[in-house]
Backbone:
């Protein structure tokens, strides 16, 4: 790995941390969301440098979408979306800071104490192929399970989030031909 | 710069992200902000996993799978978090964790 | 009839009839008297036959080891005693039929009496420790029932209780003796005890001595005799003559070989007997109550038996036992007759009683003279025979004791033979019998007298008195030799002429002095001796009761509440930490909390002992812990997070530091 | 790569559960509101079928399938059977509160999926399998906790979710650390390489991974959700949440301790023992003063986890651990579900006092409660007694005699608060006449039957423990 | 099979009673009596077939009526039952006492069905404990007995019964868990890991590790000491007894306490012989302290039932003294130690019979006047001669008079223990005296003197509930006592009141059958024992006398087993 790459990676790392800190410093949820997105994108950059382009791309795309959803969500539901009114919504600030720092300190101490068995850096084979083979082979069952998890999440999230179900829309016997929705639109229309 | 130091520095970055995330999760009152803290911890995991893979076991796919799983975790927890927030907002018109303290003792 | 069957019947007959009478209850009242008389007379016959036959009986009982069974045998000593016991029992039962009011629960009375007789007969024929103990303890229990016969009247039952408990205290010795026998000889045979090895023999000997002293009311157990006088006269006549008190003397005589093998116990026994003779002699001399006087004299006379056993004078002791039985039975029968007739047993109330009831009066006079040791009457001989083996200080003490018997006998005679009471004395503490001439019924401290002595009673008294006198033949050397031979105990010390003459002379002199100047004894009656020389205080249950109460308090306050406090303190925090809106808890908590508080106060009451403070601290720490346990659940999520992190951090520390 | 993939038949119970979930969902989607019972029937049949299907591999040899990510052995088998049966019972006892509910179908579906997750936890033989299993065992429960959508319910959901998310990512950190340390994620790889790996890293990894399973099990110090969720959720849901995922979590912890964490230079067993001690003690002491039925049961389940972690602590140290785990999990599943069923039988009675009044003149309900609560205490001959006996024995055998003594002391302490529920109930039932002519509290039939059934089952399982053990170990 | 039938018959009957809802309540009591009678008959049958000369004597070999079914194979626990000379008498005692309790409770009005079912359940638990030859099975029944008794006290007791029941449950449960820990220690310590008592006794575990052996013995000892109870673990007992229903007290004292002492003989001695030898002196000392403590504290009681409760501690102390002496191998001959062991076993039986009778008699007081206070009864021999006679006989029996079973027991214990522990035995002897004192004082207070009857309004169980409702137990505070005194009606006997008259009791024929059905209300009446009460109590006393006079049939059964245990403990 070239020195440049290393420096860039570290710089991105530092950026990720700084942006991460900013998440809890800025006084607007929108800004916080975008800081978080920035942090994730920096990490995606690190991935890219460290020969994982596919995962970097997935991360970047997914986080962008997710943060977009989050932003929309905030703007729709939450108070103080645009940071118009500076406010503090924290409790136990110093305790939390101490806890966060303690975690950091413990981990860092460990990291710098351990004698890492670094592998000889050589030409990497196709990293994406490696991932794909693992997913389809050794870790196939894991991915199947992830599929079930996602199915479950859709179901559970929907149930939890929505106030109205099929019987509200189509009647107790599901006999209604057109759904009875307070707002027009959506499925079954 | 040797690989070892680079690895350690990157891991320190990961640790810092975890630390910041912990701070956020503990200190924020808004549910969504707590979730952001948790996301940051996952972010740290991502950095750790990718460094591990690159410097330690480039021949093993496990760290890569871990990254995939981390993303899944992040997505799933976002979904459930938003759903929970919506639910509690519907039931109690609050979005702050401190406001939900009926259950205690 | 085989010998063993006779022996069995001797015990079983009175026992079974007694139980039958008890089971019959009030329905048996009418037939109880005659049945009891018949039974005792038959028993007397059986006793004579058994004495001649010398049978043995064995019945399975505890087993396992030798001597664990119920075994009876008749040897010389037993032969003498069964006849004595049966004879006195018969006499007393006959007296009882005449003396006991018609309306009383006679079946119960005679039932107890017969059971008691059976127990005594078993005691004097027992050859194993279990047998002895069974008979011995049943005798004690029936004595309690007999003394407390008039349970309706205040004080009777507690008198019985005193008697039973005191004698039982001595009885514990027999339990220990049994253990020692088992340990020392591996058997429970009485005869084997003398051969026990090591210290076990000493233990056994001393324990048996203890039991004997208790039963025989020797020092320091004498006080129960006084209480036992609460029983009906017939009971006193039986208990204080041939049975119960005699049993202690008997067992020591029976165990003579054992005493011989353990000289220090023998010496102790001798001294206990001599001192009892002395002290109870004084006590008797100081009494103002006839029955109390007789009771104390009983202790004193049996003391000489114990002395005899201690010095190895078995024949003398046995003679003393038998002669005393006859004498004392006579006196108690007479005393009972007077009590019934005059309603009093107070000496003041009995002035001239012997003149008024000449029949029993004469018997009483003869018996009292015998008791006083006047030659050539029986007790004169036996007394000196009993103390024949003693010497030195022991002998002197015994002699003084013997002389005292003349003092109280004289005192008794002086009263009953003296002039009748003067009407103007009625201001005294106790009401005298009142005007004799107007023949109205009189009241004594025991109610209204019947003013009548039944013929039966007189007959019984006379018979017994004649026997008492007749036993004087023991003084004749051939008879004495025969008697000694009967007891299979040759080489016994026999009193010489001076040893007999001196006490006899002393007795006569003392008797005359007291008869002439009875007031000499006046001061004695006002001293501590009249109250049994303070002996009752010696055995008072008060310290035990106090100890019991103290322990009970410790039990309830310290141990119990301490434990309870510790157990409940886990939730003891209940009210302090509980928020006001969560108050709907079960009442029980309050109750327990209140109790815990009370417990705390109770614990505090017992000044800061070690337990107390420790329990207190433990309870408090548990209480605090209970509070800590609920406090983390604040309901605030960020605090959950923080606590979880801290907890995990601590676990990490454990993981890293503790390998 | 082909040999990496196992036969789908190896996963028959899980497949049956997931298929059952999908079928039930489809059936429910096209059923009228009042006729969603069909979905319940499908679910119960699927769960029982899964339990049945789990028996034959239980008897068969142990094997790791699908690239050694999934283990089929007696531990998996135990959880398969117990979780499936418990799910079926809960589905039945939920009838009273769910029948006609607009989301009735989905509740059964989520239960089946969560049961699958619990089994996956137990069977995971790879850290990377553990993570999705954790998710699958958590996500449905977040929803189930707040199924009533009332204030308490959603608060329970929120706390459960936030706690779960936080611990979940901590677990990810742990997994990452262990992968960093060992360079692999399979348990066999970990067992092989962790002993030589850097201790700090291993320590952090082990601790964070254990935190994850401890959270699912509801053990100290990540137990905070348990009482709140138990009290906030509907009784039937609480029964499910405090039973089924715990089975999987305890099994997962057991598997971790038995193999990958056993050989490290760290005294992991001691940490688990400490967790066990803290859980049982805290659970019991904190339950002392509870006046709400469900909250009391919540704390009681914390303490029960403490007892189960005793077995986990000695996983690698005693031969007796496997039978102990099998018996305790089975006993706990039956008894805990039963206790919640008893609570659910009087849906209006929230406090112990109200419950006692409601149980008046209902001797069978009281009798079931007596058996169930005394069962939780460990009174013979119920199933938990056999489990406790086995776990005490295993703990002592594994060198944790102090833990055994503590557990015994805790059992006595627990009796105290169980009696606070039991005694007034037994007495209340004793008085035939209601005080001021109140209308008697409504009795829910399905939970009542479930309580009776589990009570009988608890005794039967205790007496028939030999059969069960023969199945598991033979 | 016979043994299993005996053990399980009662619980099956209990299930049937609960199941047959249509059965009228009045039939419940009769069925209960019938079942217990059948059980007793079966035990008699078993006793008749029992071979007391069987080789081995029991424990390791010579068990009879054995049955064994595997239960939990992984820890080698099984359903293993059998009887030998120690358990046979106790099984018989159990069935006798439960029959007495059933007869006593024929008139039970309060939820008779459940009451009967609980007693039947308890009977199975007790019988099972005595029959068990497997530690786990033993524990199962042992623990169930606690549960059953808890519900009896809590449901049918009086006074402060809820609290007492709770205390009983917690305390004895603590003990039972200590016991369980000890069992686990035995299991783990053995070479072949098993819970089977016979195999553990044959091949005792932990022989080579005195420390572990001692600790295991400590756990078992504490567990059993709580149950027995021994000083200082006894404080649950007086409360539980005072507030329990009479039949419950009788069973608690008569049967359940024996589970503790039986455990010492069956488990502690044969399975931990070295430890028992090493620590036998502790057992002796604890026994002696219990003897004296129980007696002295009983002496101070002002409540009849409480007093009897404390005498149980005293009597159980003798048992431990005997068993401890049996373990002092170095200082005493085997024969002598056998005597002590036999005595201890007889004491269990004897105490069962006599104390049960005494508790039932105290139940008579409660039924008549709702109090046990000495201060509130007096001169009862006048209105109730049968009661007085029964109480007198029971008291004399209990104080160890020859002619009663207790004498056989105490004599053998003290005589047998003297060689092993002379000081202890001599110290224990005064216990006999103190017991005598307290019983005589009790008789004196209750039966003699002026007649005092308590016939307050609302006496009986209801009154107890009133006390419970106000939160203060009867006779606990001066205030309550004053309160109670206002209810107490002092009826002086005219004859006794005069103090001097030579008069017999005014109601000499009260014992006649014509009086048996008198009303119980109103002052001045104290209904004598009813036919039901007589049938329940008198056989117990009769049995005690029978054993006291003809002990051989019993001793023939016990002795071989006692020899066996002494031999086992001497290893």
Residues:
């Amino acid at each position: 790995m070239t020195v440049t790459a290393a420096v860039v990676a570290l710089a991105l790392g530092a950026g990720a941390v700084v942006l991460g800190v900013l998440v809890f410093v800025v006084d607007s949820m929108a800004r916080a969301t975008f800081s978080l997105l920035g942090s994730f994108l920096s990490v995606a950059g690190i991935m890219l440098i460290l020969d994982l382009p596919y995962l970097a791309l997935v991360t970047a795309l997914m986080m962008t979408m997710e943060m977009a959803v989050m932003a929309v969500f905030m703007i729709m539901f939450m108070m103080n979306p645009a940071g118009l009114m500076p406010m503090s919504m924290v409790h136990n600030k110093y305790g939390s800071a101490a806890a966060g720092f303690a975690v950091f300190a413990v981990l860092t101490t460990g990291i710098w104490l351990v004698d890492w068995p670094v592998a000889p850096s050589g030409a990497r084979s196709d990293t994406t192929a490696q991932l794909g083979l693992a997913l389809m082979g050794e870790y196939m069952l894991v991915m199947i399970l992830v599929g079930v998890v996602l199915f479950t999440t859709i179901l559970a999230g929907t149930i939890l989030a929505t106030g109205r179900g099929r019987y509200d829309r189509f009647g107790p016997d599901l006999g209604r031909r057109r759904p009875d929705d307070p707002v027009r639109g959506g499925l079954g229309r | 710069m040797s690989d070892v130091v680079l690895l350690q520095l990157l891991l320190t970055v990961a640790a810092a992200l975890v630390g910041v995330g912990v701070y956020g999760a503990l200190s924020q009152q808004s549910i969504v902000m707590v979730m952001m803290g948790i996301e940051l911890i996952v972010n740290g995991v991502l950095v750790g996993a990718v460094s591990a893979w690159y410097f330690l076991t480039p021949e093993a796919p496990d760290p890569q799978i871990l990254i995939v799983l981390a993303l899944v975790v992040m997505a799933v927890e976002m979904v459930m978090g938003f759903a929970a927030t919506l639910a509690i907002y519907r039931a109690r018109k609050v979005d702050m964790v401190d406001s939900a303290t009926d259950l205690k003792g | 009839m085989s010998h063993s069957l006779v022996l069995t019947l001797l015990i079983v007959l009175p026992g079974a009839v007694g139980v039958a009478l008890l089971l019959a209850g009030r329905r048996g009242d009418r037939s109880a008297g005659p049945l009891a008389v018949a039974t005792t007379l038959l028993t007397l016959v059986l006793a004579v036959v058994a004495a001649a036959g010398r049978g043995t009986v064995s019945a399975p009982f505890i087993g396992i080891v030798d001597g664990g069974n119920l075994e009876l045998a008749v040897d010389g000593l037993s032969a003498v005693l069964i006849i004595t016991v049966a004879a006195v029992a018969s006499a007393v039962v006959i007296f009882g039929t005449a003396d006991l009011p018609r309306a009383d629960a006679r079946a119960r009375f005679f039932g107890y009496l017969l059971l008691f007789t059976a127990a005594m007969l078993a005691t004097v024929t027992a050859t194993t420790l279990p047998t002895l103990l069974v008979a011995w303890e049943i005798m004690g229990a029936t004595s309690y029932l007999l003394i407390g016969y008039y349970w309706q009247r205040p004080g009777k039952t507690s008198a019985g209780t005193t008697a039973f408990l005191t004698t039982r205290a001595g009885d514990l010795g027999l339990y220990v003796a049994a253990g020692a026998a088992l340990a020392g000889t591996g058997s429970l045979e009485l005869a084997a005890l003398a051969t026990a090895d090591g210290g076990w023999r000493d233990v056994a000997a001393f324990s048996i001595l203890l039991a004997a002293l208790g039963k025989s009311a020797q020092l320091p157990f004498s006080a129960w005799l006084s209480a036992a006088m609460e029983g009906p006269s017939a009971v006193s006549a039986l208990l204080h003559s041939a049975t119960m008190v005699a049993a202690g003397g008997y067992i020591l005589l029976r165990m003579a070989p054992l005493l011989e093998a353990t000289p220090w116990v023998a010496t102790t026994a001798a001294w206990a007997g001599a001192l009892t003779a002395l002290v109870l002699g004084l006590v008797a001399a100081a009494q103002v109550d006839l029955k109390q006087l007789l009771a104390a004299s009983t202790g004193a006379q049996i003391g000489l038996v114990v002395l005899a056993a201690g010095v190895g004078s078995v024949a003398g002791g046995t003679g003393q036992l038998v002669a005393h039985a006859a004498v004392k039975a006579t006196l108690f029968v007479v005393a009972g007759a007077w009590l019934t007739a005059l309603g009093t047993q107070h000496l003041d109330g009995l002035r001239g009683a012997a003149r008024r009831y000449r029949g029993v009066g004469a018997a009483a006079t003869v018996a009292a003279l015998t008791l006083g040791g006047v030659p050539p009457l029986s007790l004169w001989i036996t007394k000196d025979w009993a103390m024949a083996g003693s010497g030195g200080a022991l002998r002197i003490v015994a002699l003084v004791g013997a002389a005292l018997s003349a003092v109280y006998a004289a005192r008794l005679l002086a009263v009953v033979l003296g002039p009748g009471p003067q009407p103007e004395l009625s201001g005294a503490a106790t009401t005298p019998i009142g005007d004799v001439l107007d023949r109205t019924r009189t009241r004594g401290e025991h109610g209204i007298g019947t003013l009548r002595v039944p013929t039966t009673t007189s007959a019984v008294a006379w018979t017994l008195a004649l026997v008492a006198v007749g036993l004087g033949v023991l003084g004749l050397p051939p008879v004495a030799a025969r008697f000694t031979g009967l007891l299979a105990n040759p080489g016994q010390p026999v009193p010489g002429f001076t040893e007999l003459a001196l006490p006899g002379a002393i007795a006569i002199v003392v008797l005359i002095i007291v008869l002439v100047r009875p007031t000499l004894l006046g001061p004695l009656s006002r001293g501590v001796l009249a109250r049994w020389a303070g002996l009752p205080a010696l055995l008072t249950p008060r310290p035990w009761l106090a100890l019991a109460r103290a322990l009970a308090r410790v039990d309830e306050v310290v141990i119990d509440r301490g434990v309870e406090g510790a157990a409940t303190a886990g939730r003891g925090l209940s009210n302090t930490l509980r928020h006001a809106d969560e108050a709907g808890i079960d009442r029980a908590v309050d109750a327990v909390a209140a109790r815990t508080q009370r417990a705390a106060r109770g614990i505090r009451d017992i000044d800061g002992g070690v337990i107390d403070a420790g329990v207190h601290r433990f309870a408090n720490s548990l209480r605090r812990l209970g509070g800590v346990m609920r406090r983390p659940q604040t309901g605030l999520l960020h605090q959950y997070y923080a606590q979880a992190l801290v907890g995990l951090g601590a676990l990490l520390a454990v993981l890293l530091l503790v390998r | 790569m082909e040999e990496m993939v196992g036969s789908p038949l190896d996963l028959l119970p899980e497949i049956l559960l997931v298929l059952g979930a999908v079928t039930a969902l489809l059936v429910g989607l096209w059923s009228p509101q009042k006729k969603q019972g069909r979905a319940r029937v499908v679910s119960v049949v699927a769960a029982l079928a899964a339990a049945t299907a789990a028996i034959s591999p239980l008897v068969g040899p142990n094997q790791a399938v699908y690239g050694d990510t999934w283990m089929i052995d007696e531990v998996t088998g135990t959880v398969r059977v117990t979780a499936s049966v418990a799910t079926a019972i809960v589905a039945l006892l939920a009838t009273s509160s769910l029948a006609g509910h607009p989301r009735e179908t989905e509740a059964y579906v989520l239960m089946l999926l969560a049961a699958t997750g619990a089994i996956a936890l137990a069977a995971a033989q790879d850290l990377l399998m553990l993570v999705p299993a954790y998710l699958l065992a958590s996500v449905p429960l977040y929803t189930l906790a707040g199924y009533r959508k009332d204030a308490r319910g959603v608060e329970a959901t929120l706390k459960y979710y936030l706690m779960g998310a936080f611990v979940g990512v901590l677990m990810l950190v742990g997994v990452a650390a262990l992968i960093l340390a060992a360079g692999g994620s399979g348990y066999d790889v970990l067992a092989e390489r962790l002993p030589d790996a850097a201790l700090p890293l291993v320590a952090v990894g082990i601790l964070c991974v254990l935190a994850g399973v401890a959270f699912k099990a509801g053990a100290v110090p990540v137990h905070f959700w348990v009482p709140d969720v138990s009290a906030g959720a509907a009784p039937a849901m609480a029964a499910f949440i405090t039973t089924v995922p715990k089975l999987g979590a305890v099994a997962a912890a057991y598997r971790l301790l038995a193999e990958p964490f056993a050989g490290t230079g760290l005294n992991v067993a001691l940490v688990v023992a400490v967790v066990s001690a803290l859980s049982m003690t805290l659970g019991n002491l904190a339950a002392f003063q509870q006046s709400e039925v469900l909250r009391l049961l919540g704390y009681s389940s914390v303490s029960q986890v403490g007892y189960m972690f005793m077995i986990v602590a000695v996983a690698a140290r005693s031969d007796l651990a496997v039978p102990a785990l099998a018996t305790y999990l089975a006993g706990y599943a039956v008894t805990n579900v039963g206790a919640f069923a008893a609570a659910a039988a009087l849906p209006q009675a929230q406090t112990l006092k109200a419950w006692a009044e409601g149980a008046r003149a209902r001797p069978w309900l009281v009798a079931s409660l007596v058996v169930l609560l005394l069962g939780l205490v460990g009174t013979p001959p119920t199933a938990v007694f056999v489990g406790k006996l086995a776990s005490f024995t295993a703990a002592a055998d594994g060198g944790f005699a102090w833990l055994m003594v503590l557990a015994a002391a805790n059992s006595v302490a627990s009796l105290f608060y169980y009696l606070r529920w039991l005694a007034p109930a037994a007495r209340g039932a004793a008085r035939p006449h209601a005080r001021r002519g109140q209308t008697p509290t409504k009795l829910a039939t399905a939970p009542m039957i479930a309580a009776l059934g589990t009570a009988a089952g608890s005794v039967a399982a205790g007496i028939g423990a030999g059969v069960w053990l023969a199945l598991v170990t033979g | 099979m016979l043994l299993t039938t005996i053990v399980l018959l009662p619980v099956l009957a209990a299930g049937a009673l609960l199941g047959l809802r249509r059965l009228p309540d009045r039939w419940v009591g009769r069925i209960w009596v019938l079942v217990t009678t059948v059980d007793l008959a079966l035990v008699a049958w078993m006793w008749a077939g029992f071979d007391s000369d069987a080789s081995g004597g029991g424990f390791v070999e010579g068990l009879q009526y054995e049955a064994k079914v595997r239960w939990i194979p992984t820890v080698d626990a099984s359903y293993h039952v059998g009887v030998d000379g120690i358990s046979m008498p106790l099984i018989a005692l159990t069935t006798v006492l439960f029959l007495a309790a059933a007869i006593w409770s024929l008139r039970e009005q309060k939820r008779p069905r459940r009451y009967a079912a609980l007693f039947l359940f308890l009977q199975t638990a007790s019988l099972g404990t005595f029959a068990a030859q497997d530690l786990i099975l033993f524990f199962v029944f042992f623990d169930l007995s606690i549960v059953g008794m808890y519900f009896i006290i809590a449901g049918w007791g009086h006074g402060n019964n809820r609290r007492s029941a709770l205390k009983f449950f917690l305390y004895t449960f603590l003990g039972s868990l200590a016991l369980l820990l000890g069992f686990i220690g035995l299991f783990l310590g053995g070479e072949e890991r098993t819970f089977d008592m016979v195999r553990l006794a044959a091949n005792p575990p932990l022989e080579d590790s005195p420390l572990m052996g001692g600790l295991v013995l400590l756990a078992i000892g504490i567990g059993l000491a709580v149950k027995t109870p021994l000083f200082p673990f006894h404080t649950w007992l007086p409360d539980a007894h005072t507030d329990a229903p009479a039949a419950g007290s009788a069973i608690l004292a008569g049967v359940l306490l024996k589970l503790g002492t039986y455990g010492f003989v069956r488990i502690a001695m044969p399975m931990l012989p070295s430890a028992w030898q090493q620590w036998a002196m502790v057992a002796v000392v604890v026994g002696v302290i219990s003897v004296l403590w129980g007696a002295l504290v009983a002496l101070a009681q002002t409540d009849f039932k409480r007093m009897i409760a404390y005498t149980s501690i005293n009597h159980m102390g003798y048992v431990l003294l005997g068993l401890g002496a049996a373990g002092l191998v170095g200082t005493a001959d085997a024969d002598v130690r056998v005597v002590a062991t036999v005595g201890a076993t007889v004491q269990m039986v004897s105490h069962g019979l006599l104390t049960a009778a005494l508790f039932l008699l105290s139940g008579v007081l409660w039924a008549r006047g709702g109090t046990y206070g000495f201060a509130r009864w007096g001169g009862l021999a006048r209105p109730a001669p049968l009661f007085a006679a029964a109480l007198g006989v029971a008291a004399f029996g209990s104080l160890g008079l020859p002619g009663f079973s207790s004498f056989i027991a105490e004599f053998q214990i003290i005589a047998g223990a003297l060689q092993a522990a002379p000081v202890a035995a001599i110290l224990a002897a005064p216990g006999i005296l103190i017991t005598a004192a307290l019983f005589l004082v009790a008789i004196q207070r209750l039966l003699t003197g002026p007649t005092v009857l308590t016939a307050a309004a609302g006496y009986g169980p209801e009154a107890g509930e009133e006390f419970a409702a106000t939160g203060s137990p009867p006779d606990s505070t001066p205030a309550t006592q004053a309160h109670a005194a206002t209810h107490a009606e002092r009826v002086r006997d005219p004859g006794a009141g005069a103090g001097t008259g030579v008069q017999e009791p005014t109601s000499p024929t009260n014992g006649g059958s014509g009086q048996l059905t008198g009303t119980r209300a109103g002052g001045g009446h104290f209904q004598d024992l009813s036919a039901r009460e007589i049938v329940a109590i008198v056989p117990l006393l009769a049995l005690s006398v029978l054993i006291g006079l003809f002990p051989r049939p019993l001793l023939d059964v016990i002795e071989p087993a006692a020899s066996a245990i002494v031999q086992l403990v001497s290893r």
Notes: Chain D touches chain C through 46 residues (CB under 8 Å). The two ends of chain D are 33 Å apart (CA to CA). Chain D has a mean pLDDT of 88.
